[in-house]
């Protein structure tokens, strides 16, 4: 049985809410996985992240925490800045907004991947919460609202894979989180501890 989460823990998980919601996973709970879900989660970690052990889990989580796509894609984002702004403007979420950072894409995925690694038993609970807290803390320091965070997250996703056909669906998830989802229920400024 899953342990009841504190408001601070739920707020931390909200940093990963976009991908959790997109995948149909709860934001306010950490349910125990059955065998099928556990197997599927491990296959997904292997296929998408090359994570198959505690060692590869920590390597990937450290990369997301310390470098990530915010560094690897920074040159492309800066050099083609005007072109990226034009791409972003095609989605309503970016209306009248200039995106200056794609870091939220890494901060959110740090929370997501840490949770999936915990679910796969590649890391323990304290390691999961350490990485998740770090992702939420970095996000809270860099952005001033859930909307700015969501815009940066989607911008990072687009720069990461501009050809993906799900960007509008992800934008819809962000709008839902802002309007009546977890982001509306848990204030951006809510303490993380």
Describe this structure in words.
- By secondary structure, this protein is mainly alpha-helical.
- The protein has one domain (33-168).
- The chain contains twelve helices and no strands.
- It has helices at 7-14, 17-22, 35-49, 54-66, 68-72, 74-79, 81-88, 104-119, 125-142, 146-160, 167-180, 182-185.
- Helix 3 crosses helix 8 (104-119), helix 8 (104-119) packs antiparallel against helix 9 and helix 10 (146-160) runs antiparallel to helix 11.
- The longest helix is centred in the C-terminal third of the chain and has 18 residues, at 125-142.
- The protein is globular.
- The model has no long low-confidence stretch (mean pLDDT 94).
At a glance:
The protein has 193 residues and is an all-alpha fold. It has twelve helices and no strands.
Give me some keywords for this one:
globular
């Amino acid at each position: 049985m899953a342990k009841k989460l504190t408001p601070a823990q739920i707020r931390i998980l909200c940093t990963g809410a976009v991908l959790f919601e997109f995948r149909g996973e709860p934001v306010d709970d950490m349910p125990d996985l059955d065998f099928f879900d556990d197997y599927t989660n491990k296959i997904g970690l292997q296929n998408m992240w090359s994570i198959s052990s505690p060692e590869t889990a920590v390597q990937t989580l450290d990369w997301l925490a310390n470098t990530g796509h915010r560094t690897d894609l920074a040159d492309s984002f800066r050099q083609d800045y005007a072109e990226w702004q034009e791409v972003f403007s095609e989605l309503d979420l970016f209306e009248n907004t200039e995106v200056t950072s794609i870091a939220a894409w890494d901060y959110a995925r740090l929370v997501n991947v840490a949770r999936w690694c915990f679910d796969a038993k590649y890391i323990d609970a304290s390691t999961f919460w350490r990485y998740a807290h770090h992702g939420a803390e970095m996000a809270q320091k860099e952005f001033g609202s859930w909307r700015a965070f969501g815009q940066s997250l989607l911008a990072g996703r687009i720069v990461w894979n501009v050809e993906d056909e799900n960007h509008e669906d992800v934008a819809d998830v962000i709008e839902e989180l802002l309007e009546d989802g977890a982001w509306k229920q848990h204030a951006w400024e809510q303490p993380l501890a």
